[in-house]
Design brief:
With 217 residues, this protein is mainly alpha-helical. It is built from 11 helices and 2 strands; from the N terminus they run αααααααββαααα.
């Protein structure tokens, strides 16, 4: 049973059995609890990230390098003919998530080790920059508006906006199937040249990648 939802449902069934068993005479609690533990531990191990052997500096270097590669792809698409706003949005979300994790690795290694697979890191990072005014002069022009777009990009990740609206996949709403190509506000803002969202976000990301150490110094 590899589907996590199915495995969690199986554990819930075990909990129901535990509850019923405790209500029956001659059933030992320890046996029921041990059975439940044996079902939970493999599920936890499957989703627990492996320990890290390398240090923060190496992780920061590779995260920035990958963010730079994603940004280059976004810049190429944004400059080409055609409507690439949904893909540019996904790439930018990936860029800011990697920047957020690089920041976490540099400033709080235990938190990075624990949360390095979390998609919510970028949202918390953007909110942190919005609240810490002393960093604002170091993150480039239009920082307040851009950080708001970063938060919205992160909130649109399917792992966070599970039922939509979100990037990558369609969802159901208002009696129809919706999709990020036409129904996601942040994508439409990236598509709208008057909003300035796309060029500002691309410049901001590039500025942050190339000045990472100075910004956080």
């Amino acid at each position: 049973m590899s589907d996590p939802v199915a495995r969690i449902e199986a554990v819930l069934e075990e909990l129901d059995e535990l509850h019923q068993g405790l209500a029956r005479p001659h059933v030992r609690e320890s046996q029921l609890l041990e059975k439940l533990r044996n079902r939970l531990e493999p599920l936890l191990e499957e989703h627990r990230p492996p320990p890290l052997d390398r240090g923060a500096d190496e992780w920061v270097t590779e995260l920035l390098a990958t963010a730079r590669y994603d940004l280059q792809a976004a810049q190429t698409l944004a400059a080409s003919k055609g409507d690439h706003a949904p893909t540019v949005a996904m790439l930018l979300q990936m860029v800011f998530e990697k920047l957020a994790k690089a920041y976490l690795a540099r400033t709080d290694w235990p938190a990075f080790v624990k949360h390095r697979r979390s998609h919510a890191v970028a949202k918390r990072f953007a909110q942190f920059l919005k609240l810490n005014w002393q960093l604002r002069p170091n993150v480039g022009p239009h920082s307040s508006k851009v950080l708001g777009w970063v938060v919205r990009l992160t909130e649109a990740h399917p792992a966070l906006a599970k039922n939509g609206p979100h990037l990558e996949y369609p969802w159901e709403a208002h009696g129809r199937v919706c999709g990020p190509t036409r129904d996601l506000d942040i994508v439409n803002e990236l598509r709208d040249a008057k909003s300035g969202a796309a060029p500002h976000l691309l410049r901001f990301a590039g500025h942050f990648i190339e000045n990472f150490d100075r910004i956080l110094g």
